[in-house]
Amino acid sequence: MTDIVQPLSGTGIGLRQPHYREVFERRPELAFLEVHSENFFLDGGASMHALERARAAYPISLHGVGLSLASADALAGEHLAKLKRLVDRVEPALVSEHLCWGGVGGVHFNDLLPFPYTGEALALLADRIDRVQATLRRRILVENLSAYVECRHSAMTETAFLAELARRTGCGLLLDVNNLYVNAINFGFDPAARLGELAGDSIGQMHLAGHAVVDDCLIDTHGSLVCDPVWSLYEEACRRFGPKPTLIEWDTDLPALDVLLSQAAQADAIARREVAHA
User: Which domain of life is it from (predicted)?
Assistant: First the structure.
């Protein structure tokens, strides 16, 4: 495995089509831009032109949603081949994928679904991540999931599972702080304690996002401001692990660009404060 570009530091935002023109014209101070890999699998067209323009101005993080690493189906070779072409073309700073499944029996559910944290699942995922990293010839990051059911057969916590997966494969972790908080509220555990199950050197990126509060749970929506408890958990993560490349993730009810930039500035301020206190 090889690293194509220098490691990132600082905060980025997701590049979304309504903000293309403003980002290219204003060139705001950002550490990187992140895009969903699958949106750029075509070899040409307007989307690829926009990504190439973005790549000329900023480091790029590719974030995948469709590889379905934990599916009982075979690893999707065609999907992986498309991802490799994109990686070779863009030479991103980071490549990440959700640790989940999203289809079985050839049927795609258009969702990011949980799975039991067992030794069997660990062996399956370790093999698949090894194959993905060998194909891409680089380390990838895998992201913890927001979930609304727990599997009764799980033999370990999600964070312990992630830590062991990183140890076995050399992959990195994308710590989604909002997802950890959502699960903590939904399932009744201490999110700060779960941070203690992770090794700081395995964490290659963090995500921050908003969620919705409904009657009996929290829903990860990526459609609102980061809330105060998630900011506090992010502070704790920075305190434990040091600053990591951090993304302000916002995918629905997209606000004005300045809202995202303000959230990015807040994340930068927290990271700088933790460095000063270290």
Answer: Bacteria
